[in-house]
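User: I'm putting together a teaching handout on how sequence relates to shape, and I'd like one worked example. Could you take Iron complex transport system ATP-binding protein from Acetobacter senegalensis, show the sequence you're using, and then write out its predicted structure as tokens right after it?

Assistant: Happy to. First the sequence, then the structure tokens directly below it.
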Amino acid sequence: MPIIRAEKIEIAYQTTSVIRELTLSIECGTMISLVGPNGSGKSTLLKALAGQIRLKDGKAFLDEQEIRHTGSRATARRLSFLPQTPLVPEGLSVRELVALGRFPHLGFTGLRSQEDEQAIDQAMEMASVKELSARPAEQLSGGQRQRAWIAMTLAQQSDILFLDEPTTYLDISHQIEVLDLLQHMNRDYQRTVVMVLHDLNLAARYSDRIIALRDGTIHADDTPSRVVTPKILEQVFGIQAEIHTDSATGRPWFIPGRLLPLRTDKTS
């Protein structure tokens, strides 16, 4: 049974539809990347599935309950959402920022338990920010700040992780570190991970499934080897590409070539 499901959802900003008649389901324990050109609806779709924005039409479900009827705290216990460019509240240390992830689990007193403190410590260690614990969060570099936000997401200890461009501001070594961490959470802790990625080669390396969007609709939804193909890269991104297979992982990777006119057909 899907853990998350969308039925013919439509999302519009004012009079402009961003997502159109989109249907999909997400199974428990999968690692999924949403890819597509700028403006294709990736971030909007992620927010909709997390109950962050209102649907113009259609329905979105979490655990077979329509998400608009699920309370925000109950949703947060099941689903962590890291937006693309979160704002750091002024005056918070890194540890205080990470501790915000425990909010859905606090009782009516608002006081953190020993279990909460352990979850915070574990999350900071996993995201490699423990040595930054006392630093003011607003003084961190872009990469350090991104890892602190990821630590906050992990401290939430939800079974579903939604991340909008989690590798933003990170150099390649830290990108790999973060994606290795998310894969570890997926493989060893059965977390369901859904993330927006711009780097299609990284999406192919780490994902069980890639959903490629264009113009607010799903153009391709399959395993990396069935999505990272010359035809789909031409249709979705308008590029000519040379496809290779990683001998160690069996995953596809590509070398981009020249730009091509976007085709209008949607066959894959």
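A couple of points you could highlight for students: The first helix runs from residue 42 to 49. The two ends are 26 Å apart (CA to CA).
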